[in-house]
């Protein structure tokens, strides 16, 4: 009888995965970090924009394995939002649970903020891999509230996906550049010609007709060239 019970519990453990919810001590995405050991901070803004999208805005979340990050999170939207760090699989699963019942969790990898509120999540990314920051309030993920969190031992430029393009037009005064570009994988956009924002320093490196390799992302709700080579 004892033997049978033991094997049953083993099967149960295996089926919920190696990163079962045992006090969150062994989540794949990592563990709560110590405030005293923060390596750096990433500012995060949660908001809705005029196009009906909901966004998690921040710099690229490219993190070194073992790094402890303080996420300074501000809800600049008019709705309640949350910020959850987890695997894509766990987020997908919790999203389904949330759709059944909008639960308010109190997990260390998760914070829920009223409009105008700020908060922080201090997190140690113990494992390499691709994770996700998301808002799992029903409908929000689908409206755009998710972004990749890449954790690697030697993560930098090599892991950022560059897109080829040709600069068609530059409007330096307006800070706008029109680029004929290939698919933008991180933004889930097909190849087309589009207007991007670029800051002055970036603009200075650009010329009409120039072939470039670039990375674009949403910055304050606008598509912006963030890297170029
Ligand atoms: Cu939200």
Automatic annotation (TrEMBL):
Q: Where is the signal peptide?
A: 1-20
Q: Which UniProt keywords apply?
A: Copper, Metal-binding, Signal
Pfam families tied to this protein: Copper-bind, CusF_Ec
- Which residue range or ranges hold the Blue (type 1) copper domain? 47-151
Q: Which SUPFAM superfamilies match?
A: Cupredoxins (SSF49503)
Q: Which molecular function terms from Gene Ontology are attached?
A: copper ion binding; electron transfer activity
Q: Does the keyword tRNA processing apply?
A: no
- Matching InterPro entries: BlueCu_1 (IPR000923), Cu-binding_ET (IPR050845), Cupredoxin (IPR008972), CusF_Ec (IPR021647), CusF_sf (IPR042230)
| Domain of life (superkingdom) | Bacteria
Name the PANTHER family for this protein. Answer: AURACYANIN-B, COPPER-RESISTANT CUPROPROTEIN COPI
Protein name according to UniProt: Putative cupredoxin-like copper-binding protein
Source organism per UniProt:
Sagittula marina
